[in-house]
Design goal:
about 150 residues, alpha+beta, 7 helices, two-stranded antiparallel sheet
């Protein structure tokens, strides 16, 4: 059975939460990666920044839906969700745009489980961790390579 440790990249490129967005974009484009782990000063995983998080900045500001009845206005949205979206759209540093609830796997996770996560959750990049330390990273291309051997 092929597991994460068999296919993961171990030359991990990571960034810090205070990295500026243009620098993060440059790192991702230069290295042809879809996502990059965000780590603190101790190397602990605190988030992930993906291309989709950055593309979000090009989105138009959503007009929140409301319901009006008898001169009263009722919002049909979560103000927290709107605040979060706005925060991502105007982000200048990685910590403002990154996802903090990161789905991770361990080195012994089977490829079938990794593939399921990628398909069901629309992930392109999944960090491989030991505790909270990133020991590897798996992208969709790594899964595809298993089909050629």
């Amino acid at each position: 059975m092929i597991t994460a440790k068999d296919i993961m990249a171990t030359n991990i490129i990571s960034i810090s939460p205070d990295t500026e967005i243009p620098k993060a974009v440059e790192i991702m484009l230069k290295n042809h990666i879809n996502g990059v782990p965000v780590v603190d000063n101790d190397g602990q995983l605190i988030g992930i920044l993906c291309q989709s998080d950055l593309i979000f900045q090009q989105k138009n500001i959503p007009i929140p839906p409301i319901f009006a009845i008898l001169d009263s206005i009722f919002p049909l949205f979560s103000s927290k969700k709107l605040d979060d979206q706005f925060q991502k759209m105007v982000a200048t540093k990685v910590e403002q745009a990154m996802v903090t609830k990161v789905t991770t796997i361990t080195a012994d996770t089977p490829v079938s489980e990794i593939a399921s996560l990628m398909v069901e959750k629309h992930f392109h990049t999944i960090p491989v961790v030991e505790g909270k330390k990133v020991i590897g990273i798996i992208g969709k291309e790594d899964i595809l390579k298993t089909l050629t051997s």
